[in-house]
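can u do me a favor
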């Protein structure tokens, strides 16, 4: 490596020294005629340097039953200095990332169930070496939690009353925005929206009806985010003349 050295110490400051491998050193003496002795005892050391590893960038998502599985490329297959991974998460409204698990995982996936419907989350992964060194974090990948389909109104009731046709449905404690009532005459093809009522209203009287006419109704639900559900079943009723 170097010589002759006229002191009893030598500093190996080579930039190529790696913390992931051992190095062996030996010393010999040399006289003025450049004769050398045999090697001294050999010593072994692993430098106290950070182990630099690759970064897990290939993040994939699989969402089922309200649980998100986050997986990434397993760098351990090509680097035995890597022993695990840490995963960070950040919602759209947060400024800083936080750990999903306080301990590194020794597999290339993790599950997250702490999710809000419609929420947007960023995930990033770093590798952990045998010495506990952490790699850089990979590029953050974004997952948007899908919203559940709006429920269809499958149960509602029709009956003739003195003022018209009374439409009602079960009272439920749900964070909805509104109910929409559609109507057509039996001889018609297309439904028209009759009215919209707020989520705390569970009935409506259709007064714009004609005697001995068959009407067909269906009701839909509107959620707080203004998504309207699909048409459920429809029900028909004849406006009875003697109810007028």
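np, heres the sequence
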């Amino acid at each position: 490596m170097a010589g002759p050295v006229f002191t009893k110490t030598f500093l190996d400051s080579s930039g190529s020294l790696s913390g992931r491998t051992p190095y062996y050193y030996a010393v010999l003496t040399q006289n003025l005629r450049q004769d050398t002795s045999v090697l001294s005892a050999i010593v072994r050391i692993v430098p106290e340097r950070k182990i630099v590893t690759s970064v897990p960038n290939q993040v994939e998502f699989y969402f089922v039953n309200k649980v998100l599985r986050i997986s990434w490329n397993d760098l351990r297959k090509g680097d035995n200095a890597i022993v695990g991974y840490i995963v960070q998460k950040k919602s759209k409204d947060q400024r800083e990332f936080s750990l999903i698990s306080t301990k590194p995982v020794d597999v290339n996936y993790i599950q997250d169930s702490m999710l809000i419907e419609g929420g947007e989350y960023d995930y990033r992964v770093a590798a952990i070496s045998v010495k506990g060194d952490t790699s850089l974090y990979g590029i953050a990948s974004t997952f948007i939690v899908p919203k559940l389909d709006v429920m269809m109104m499958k149960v509602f009731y029709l009956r003739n009353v003195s003022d018209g046709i009374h439409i009602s449905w079960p009272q439920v404690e749900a964070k909805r925005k509104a109910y929409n009532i559609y109507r057509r005459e039996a001889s018609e093809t297309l439904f028209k929206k009759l009215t919209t009522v707020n989520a705390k209203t569970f009935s409506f009287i259709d007064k714009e009806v004609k005697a001995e006419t068959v009407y067909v109704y269906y009701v839909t639900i509107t959620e707080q985010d203004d998504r309207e559900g699909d048409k459920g079943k429809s029900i028909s009723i004849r406006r009875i003349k003697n109810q007028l």
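The chain has three domains: 1-49, 60-144, 157-243. hope that helps!!
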